[in-house]
Design a protein that fits this description.
Ferritin; mainly alpha; 2 domains; 12 helices; about 325 residues
Length: about 325
Amino acid sequence: MISRFFGASKRSFSDLSEQEVLALAIASEEEDSRIYASYAAGLREDYPESAMMFDEMAQEENTHRQRLIDMHKKRFGDTIPLVRREHIRGFYNRKPDWLVRPLNLEKTRKMAAEMEVQAHRFYLEAAKRTSDADTRKLLGDLAAEEAEHEALARRLDGKMQDSGAAKTEISQEKRQFILTYVQPGLAGLMDGSVSTLAPIFAAAFATGDTWSTFLIGLSASVGAGISMGFTEVASDDGVISGRGSPIKRGFAAGIMTTLGGLGHTLPYLIPDFNLATTIAILIVFVELWAITWIQNKYMQTPILRAIFQVVFGGVLVFAAGVLIGLA
């Protein structure tokens, strides 16, 4: 068991025979083909142009696999040894990101490009392991082809940009990110930061007790987060609006609502009332400016309008809380 834990059961690539090197190449091409097919399936609904490119990549990997199988039959017969990447010490592994839904377009392209770089290096090393001229030529040709695929992202973009598909897909992905995460998260942050100002600072100035203020702020923040999250989930299933999964939107809204309230609640863990209140007020202004920045960057809200909506409104709520607390 100890030897298996330290990888002693795995073989070194340098110890493989020429037949085993071919078998490893066949298994690797088959796996990569299936990965590309999974990428295509995951992207097809939202990014059909990219999905088509990954379909092509899957077919190319299948072609590579068939050429390797033909060479194995020619040299060693029909029985291919079972040798896979996980059997080889230090060999690259694929992270199962193709199982994640929805797939991130940019990350998927980068991962595919990395796969091709690894395959290129593998064929260069594999070619050094064979003395047969035909096998060496095949492996060298495959290394050259994988090197061309290294520029996968450029190749994908080059074909799609002619029809404007690349810009459309990237714009669509950004829009989906904003609709699913930024918009509900921003609404939650605004609600958590602004709506909790009055009760927290009213409690602070009414009681002068930091622990009581913290408990009130904590309950207000968590309660608002739960309420906001469930409201977001129930308000829209995302099918018609295209805003994405209601669960994801609910988590984004709920978490950001809670964080918005906790920002100026946590300072009241400090026993000194004046210090805690000073820090809480500073954090409020940081929160309000953060909301303003997000509105301007992601929602294209003009900066002056965002300042008026968020900062001015927040200051009014804060002042109301202080006045109520001192009453």
